[in-house]
User: What shape does this take?
Amino acid sequence: MHNDEQKYIQISGARENNLKNVSLRIPKQKITIFTGVSGSGKSSIVFDTIAAESARLLNENFSMFVRNFLPRYPKPDTDAIENLSMAVIVDQKRLGGGSHSTMGTITDISPLLRLLFSRIGEPNIGKAHLFSFNDPHGMCPDCSGLGRQMIVDMDKAIDMSKSLLEGAMQLPDYTVDSFDWTMLVQSGPFDTNKKLADYATDELEQLLYGKAKKMAVQFGGKSMNITVEGCIEKFTNKYIKRDLKTMSERTQRAVTPFIIEGGCNSCNGARLSQHTLQSKVNGYNIADMSAMEVGKLITIMESLDSEIAKPIVTSLVERLKHLVEIGLGYLTLDRETDTLSGGESQRVKMVKHLSGSLVDVTYIFDEPSIGLHPRDVNRLNKLLQKLRDKGNTVIVVEHDPDVIQIADHIVDVGPHAGTNGGTIMFEGSYEQLLLSDTLTAKFMKQSMQLKEQVREPIGQLVIANATKHNLQDVTVSIPTGVLTVVTGVAGSGKSTLIHDVFLQQHPEAITIDQSAIGVSTRSNPATYTGIMDDVRKTFATMNKVSPGLFSFNSKGACENCQGLGVVYADVAFLDQVKLPCEICEGKRFKEEVLTYTLHGKSIADVLEMTVEVALSFFTQKEIVRKLQSLSDVGLNYIKLGQPLSTLSGGECQRIKLASELHKQGSIYVMDEPTTGLHMSDVGLIIQIMNRLVDAGNSVIVIEHHLDVISQADWIIDMGPDGGSKGGQVVFEGTPVQMAKAEHSITGKHLEK
Ligand code: ADP
Ligand code: ADP
Ligand code: ZN
Ligand code: ZN
Assistant: This one.
């Protein structure tokens, strides 16, 4: 009996956020998937209860002294959690790390590659560390291993169509009538009336890059000896070669717009010293190999015929194959991690753990299917199973039916969102789930019909000959006045086409993404959408006082907690505790403010209302319109005063959508708007897109979700594969045409 209990993580009486005192058990060394509508409480169980408790337990292993330096984790609101092992969260937070962190370094593949070169590189230059651009002896001395240099942005710095007198120089020190400009114009050798475009090559060279020389000039009626130097040369020496950060803020602001990054002239971006780059394996140096797509690198590794290198090659190939298995075969090892998308970052982290030797770990995944084309979901599934089979417990929050299918155990949270959720609706196997009457089961059994009556476009926006990243001279038209879905496997070039090319040409387009909104801890849905301003005015008019009184950011704020509603008690050697403010009892306002009411409710009561409740309370037109927008995007359940920092990415995205819904004639770009959405909510987001289009807007969506693709007016499918094997438009047309298309991988999945 005792033994059997240890096979489960047992959670009793969990009450974080909206959880209604729930108890459940999660089988160890199995895959458990949490499903349920957005806002039902999945994260509250998995992250705010399980992961939080694990982090807290881990901290308790340290001495009180050390603990003072660690982040502090309050105990989750739960009666007990038993048999928890160390939890590792594999989420979509972008991998930071600056330019010294690359795919190769983060996956620990680069150290192996360096080891390989130190053993069999021809000629052999020495120890493995010499092959690292993070090592002082290996790095290119001219760019310190960055592979890039800061250079003057010539397009901004000079205007070739003007003469010196007309102000051809745009650089801060050379604006007309400045000291340097006057010197330049008066120093003699240059024709000040001639357009720079008409200068002879050597003349221009002297003006821009001429070496410093002393000469006498007439200035203000006096003769002066000065040093004249090419202006780009001078700017480079004066600002770029010095540490800008040590200069005044004013100087930095004036100068930075003229500086851009360019490749390093010495190493051409290879980051390594010339000496290091001489060493080769199979004709390639280590920078060549790092710049190869992983798929190609595997082929080369497998062709190596060396006994000494065999063990290294074996583990290199094993790790590289993990990258391919997870659908990242199109990346290169030298790719900087901060340029990876959220989904890619998550998959890279996964590879790191797969290659590691930790066992009995609880791995927690947050929607790992994000950014993955249906084709690649199978690969993801295999990796999750591999982690489990190594003896780990795998917990996944996921909406994708193809992932849910592989669960050993499923927990469905619901029935709805917010206060209408927070209970366990179902626990059991996949087969049992399908027989249950949960919303999840209902939606898994029904599928969308392909849209047949598509809208006619009102115009076309043309992208011509795009070549950024992997795009292969792409020319494509994006119809306006309709719903366009851009799809294709990961790495095929969707984001490059839309974010890097289309949005550059159409900066007026409105991008709605999932990034967090509201930097301030004081922002909430009411302040973000502007409802709060209207509510304050209404309170002020009814009570004949100033509207400022009803703001917890200013006059109305409780003085004890400055309007935060909580106070932080910092007890030495103990976890920092967040306590509700005892003066305002968490209501954030001064007592006096709360005596003013509207139909019996104080301003604090209003902030506690959900959107749904507020809709039946208010009658003021503007307030109702804004509340209705929130309701229309499925946020009925959120409280007007809930801090934006506590909303999920999907909820943030929908709040942004809600505050845009009344616009017309705009172009909207959305990137995977179904992220974080349960199948039952996807229909809602499609409705919103349709509303935007019907109101006269153009909507462009990057999406893999087949339900969204099936409802498009126009589909652009990128492919055929990722990286250098992608970058082409493989299909353009309607959903019905796509399902019949021969060459489209997406079409095959749509047909199913
Ligand atoms: P899910 O993961 O199923 O989408 P969550 O567990 O994130 O749902 O959220 C459950 C409910 O709790 C939602 O109404 C959400 O807005 C609310 N919530 C989440 N975090 C907080 C928080 N820190 N403070 C207040 N409410 C929160
Ligand atoms: P998708 O959006 O279809 O997943 P992307 O447009 O992100 O594809 O990527 C297309 C190709 O461009 C891939 O080979 C990817 O590695 C490359 N790429 C994307 N962003 C960058 C970047 N910042 N630097 C270098 N290569 C990039
Ligand atoms: Zn260099
Ligand atoms: Zn207070």
Q: What stands out?
A: The radius of gyration is 30 Å. The mean pLDDT is 89.
